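Sanity check. The docking grid for 2-acetamido-2-deoxy-beta-D-glucopyranose depends on where the pocket ends up, so I'm generating a full predicted complex first rather than guessing from homology. Inputs follow.
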Amino acid sequence: MAEIQLSLSVLLPILLLLYFLKLLWSRRHYPPGPLAFPIIGGLWRIAFEKEIDGMTPIKAAKQYGNVFTLWLGHFPVVFLCGFDAVKEGLVDHSEGFLDRGLTPFFQKLSEGKGVGFASGHAWKKQRRLGQMALAKLGVGKRIMEDKIEDEAQQLVEIFASQKGKPFDPILFITNSVSNVTFSLMYGYRWPVEDPNFEKLIKSNEYLSNFGLTIFYALYELFPSIMDRLPGPHKKAMEMTEMLLSLSKEEIRKHKEQEPTQEPRDFIDYYLREMEKEKNKNDPTSTVDEENLMHSIHDIYFGGLGNSSSIIQFAIIILANRPDVQDKIFKEIEDVVGSSNICYDDHKRLPYTHAVIHEIQRYRFPAIIGIPRQTTRDVHMRGYIIPKGTIIVPNLLSVLLDDEYWETPHKFNPNHFLDKDGNFVARKEFLGFSTGPRSCLGENMARMELFIFLTRLLRVFHFQPPPGVKKLIEEPVKNATLPPHPYKVCAIPRNS
Ligand SMILES: *[C@@H]1O[C@H](CO)[C@@H](O)[C@H](O)[C@H]1NC(C)=O
Ligand SMILES: *[C@@H]1O[C@H](CO)[C@@H](O)[C@H](O)[C@H]1NC(C)=O
Ligand SMILES: *[C@@H]1O[C@H](CO)[C@@H](O)[C@H](O)[C@H]1NC(C)=O
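Predicted complex below; grid placement will be based on this.
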């Protein structure tokens, strides 16, 4: 008996060790990363972190290299960090990294539909439709720019009604950005006083940050069990359902409208394409209402948090730097005079344009993007990343990459200016990602940032409330990186 016990206590560790070595051997072609043990994988590494934030993957990249693998249990996740690795992945290997990483949670939320989460042929179709719709509403037609100008004007009026007293601009800005998206998607703004509207804004915040919660992790690991349990994951799903059903109702109303010569909004455009598609009798067509609903959700969701966060930070950063505000004001005065500013004027306003880029670089609002998945085995930097591996391109690490930016952690408009003050487009500025899956709403967002900020800065001088030296520029640490709640004074320039 004692002998059996003895031999077991010798044998068992040896077997475990052999198993562990076999595991390591089978994973030798993956990019390096924290040593992956059975069951916990490389997660032990995170336990050593004081806190997890946007710098966590950047620090890990310094240790393991810019392409590294974190094993979540037996599940490999490959991170791309810094400009070179992200560009290599998203541009040079664009076909290999094209698919969306449909983990159980994202599958449940999106059913693989819509422009954000579809993959393969279905995604190509939705992407093209989305691009054409936004181009149709945006370029030449001025529909998009007019709507943005209207919203910016409303925001100016709301700020003016504060009469220079300290106020919290966060919700006003979020509402404005949401108004722009709704008027473009639905053709009108969602009434702010509708109780559903507040739910919508809240749910957007909630969903954006859900990815860093324990419930999210539990869902990804045990989806079928979690589906049967109540909890925040259920709340996240209900919120998506709500936005989808709002869109469904809107689509129904659009179908009853009298047709016009030109499409009035995104739904209108898409429904026309659906008609055309019907006549083709293609049974594999993905141009349908479900995909339309999901695409609206993706565009709204993708744009709202990011654009509003950048504008909210812009006000903080500028309130802390009166000299930058004055320089922008003067540039606009000198170049545009008292006439209306349109988006095209960004070409004549290099300093203003550079400041807007730098704000987005310096306070990029997301720690990591939504994951991708390899469509085939990808050979990269001597490693083999097998088909179906989840890939996380880290845009924040690109915008803070110390190999490319002179002062990555310091606000510095000179990043985008040459010595003569001309605007310099930097290839390392991946604020809208890059490659075939880059941000669909890039043009809309650029217009929004430019028009909102120039309108506001022409009318107001922003400053911290009396008694406050500096507004906090550090973001709240979450999956998204919004500003801390703040108050600011918008002092009218002409008083
Ligand atoms: C957004 O749209 C609503 C109309 O639904 C309007 O009352 C409001 O002024 C707009 N802007 C903001 C910042 O709320
Ligand atoms: C992160 O976001 C979630 C959802 O919006 C929120 O409940 C939580 O308090 C946030 N965490 C921090 C540290 O602010
Ligand atoms: C903001 O942009 C990032 C990077 O493109 C994207 O992954 C993220 O989903 C966007 N934010 C939200 C709230 O969707």
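Relevant for the grid: The beta strands are 67-72, 75-81, 99-100, 372-373, 378-380, 383-385, 390-394, 460-463, 489-492.
Also worth noting: The mean pLDDT is 90.
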